[in-house]
Protein 1
Amino acid sequence: MPDTTSERAAAVKAALRTQSIELPSWAFGNSGTRFKVFAQPGVPRTPEEKIEDAAQVHRYTGIAPSVALHIPWDEVDDYAALAAHAASAGVRIGTINANVFQDDDYRLGSVTNPDPRVRRKAVDHLLECVDVMDATGSRDLKLWFADGTNYPGQDDIAARQDRLADALDEVYARLAPHQRMVLEYKLFEPAFYTTDVPDWGTAYAHCLRLGERAKVVVDTGHHAPGTNIEFIVAFLLRAGKLGAFDFNSRFYADDDLMAGAADPFQLFRIMHEVVRGGAFPEGPGPDGSPGAGVCFMLDQCHNIEPKIPGQIRSVLNVQEATAKALLVDAAALAKAQAAGDVLGANSVLMDAYNTDVRPLLAELRAEDGLDPDPMAAYARSGYGERIAAERVGGAQAGWGA
Ligand code: AOS
Ligand code: ZN
Ligand code: ZN
């Protein structure tokens, strides 16, 4: 990193220009908790409209060029046409998220279900999602399994791992050479006694066995309180096994609140490991190997706040954390660490975190022809009022449907 303040700012801006954050299509639909889904005016009625709303986030932030789909919530007849629609809106289709948790058949699990008929149905859905990827040009298939048990003795824990491994093998074998499988873990919920992919270790072990194109997804909301997520990030990056993030905030469990809202310091610490680990800005490894290829995604629901501004705020929060991480004086940090200077090393990190990067980001946007204040620019655009008037009967995101 260059020495003078202006050279450092220029280097940080250059890196930030390469940033892209993927948006979840389901963030734009109505969502809620098991207690109530609050309908909002103007929410999308179709996958096409969700993509149009996502394009608004990209329009004002400049760093959200792709939208993740969820199948079947975003089911259409013609996925190539949906990809073309995305391109005409100025974005592209990103990760394909599979859904093997919403049918009655999945009461006892999907790919780990004791009934081979249900397992077959679940794997067939995952294979169909790869067909969707072929049509949309998506790189990543994202797998999150609600599978688990509620009571001791309910099913054979190890046999369920065997079934999971068999399913992953079959889907991995179906991937084209440019496609990847990313496997998400979650501590608990909806299963409460055992979860079949409960932690990064389980996901890592399955991915390691599968091969190079199977990687782990870190959803920041899927850990026990107090878990050191940046350690997991550092470990997985070092092992070449970090595939993607699902960014969100949690206060208690899988809250899916806006990234950077509950704990912006944690988001900074995660992004520091991402920068330190060479996953951002993306570049070839020291041996010329391809970069980490980490997908930086949001996985959020906006239950009580407006959805497009909620996504803009979240993208900006990730951008701010990234800018601060890029400001860490790596040379000074390494020097203090090598000297065993505990307080010195800590203050190098805290200096970066405590920097107000908002003026730098406003300058970056102005230089790139964007409004320096994306939230205000979107509010002024009138888009929110227009969709509220034009769209009647918006769709639920899928949760609690
Ligand atoms: C569920 O808790 C997970 O976070 C999933 O990543 C995701 O929210 C869901 O599968 C929607 O695609
Ligand atoms: Zn997630
Ligand atoms: Zn989740």
Protein 2
Amino acid sequence: MPPGRICVAYMGRVRANPSAARALPYRTRTVKSRRDGRGWSGLDPVKARTLTSPDSAAMRPRRFGPVEPLRGTIRVPGDKSISHRALMLGALAVGTTRISGLLEGEDVLATASAMRAMGAQIERTGVGTWRVDGVGVGSLLQPQVALDMGNSGTSTRLLMGLVASHPISAMFTGDASLSGRPMGRVIEPLSRIGAVFSASPGGRLPLMLQGISPGVPIEYCLPVASAQVKSAVLLAGLNIRGTTTVIEPVATRDHSERMLAGFGADVTVERDAAGARIIRIAGEAELRPQTLEVPGDPSSAAFFIVAALIVPGSELTIENVGLNPTRAGLIAVLRAMGGSIHEINGREVGGEPVADLVVRHSALCGVEIDPAIAPSMIDEFPVLFVAAALAQGRTTTSGLDELRVKESDRLAAMAAALTHVGAQVEERADGLVIDGSGGEPLRGSGNAVVATPLDHRIAMSMAVAGLASSGGVEVDDTRPIATSFPTFEKLLEGLAG
Ligand code: S3P
């Protein structure tokens, strides 16, 4: 077995290499933390927006009410996952990368700030167009400020991978939502590489990460289906001599693999006899700068797809939507529910399949959703629950434990929010069961506000629910929408006119 070869618990089975584990003690200390994300080790945080609590006086409530049919043509902003990766890989290439269609949401801007703090020059040259002058793999600089990740789990986990295999240290801080999310899932494999973490209780932010170079190449079997964990290990592998391997029993979004190959890294993907994906990356990579275009985000398009399906009389064209099969689960489920969604102008943008979608109002029916499809629509469940609440009959979901550790506990948040506006919802341990209204408008939230605990996707989902309600839905706080879809409200206003 090569040095550092490790496979950990997967679905209850433990396949470990104890000698490697001994060679690489998992050194995680718990530190006494200040939860306000400020004042760590005398470092000033990189400026990112930090929402401290959902009940702060600055909350921005808004009522979303019934609208005329949604008709016309729109474009949603660039894909969030791809935008993060484009900035990170551009910052690691030697030379100038030019990006168009970059999502200018707060999460992606947090990644840009962090990469700047580690030496890359990153400049906005126009709307969605950015220039990145990279430092080269192995040459990230010691940040002089704490890296404030705002609300962004993707920035945090992927950047932890990058820092882990560089001889630098970084303090990661975030908002109240991010500070409640588990980081143990990346701390664990990155500790095996040799990085050292001092985390807040429960393996959470704020945390201090001391990277290591040279790090140890590992073989890591993902215990949870997570593209963030996969990507953290692969990005760490870029600066580790030898081959770093990630085994992915359940496929997750593959943007990292695609983009790493596009930047010239030596990445291979195979399937084993059981169908698991085996992804290998050769270390000490030299990345070549690229000119790339980011396709529209299917996770943002999802809100308008569902809105057009549930608002009677709607016919909406959404241009330039990324349709990577590892992201397209929602469209398959909505079609199975009877949704009219047609793809036209299929093409490739930035190494990703893309099409324009024509969506027409449809009578939806409830379905039982196979948990195997969950990774390809993991961010779309909140809005799928809204579609289910308007469908005829029962929709059953299961196997969705991961939704409890997103920007909020999305099962609890959506069960409470939809119940509040008049939907029939049963919350189970790993999913929701929803008995739909058969197309009848939901009651709405009355005089009370619907809680969307610092979670952009809950806020946008409940806004969409408001469009198909009789009394309107008062969303408690629209600020988090800017993390992933800053133009959401404007686009909606433009359509609802
Ligand atoms: C993402 C992966 C997913 C997703 C998140 C973006 C990524 O998270 O929910 O919004 O860009 O890799 P997990 O890896 O936790 O499933």
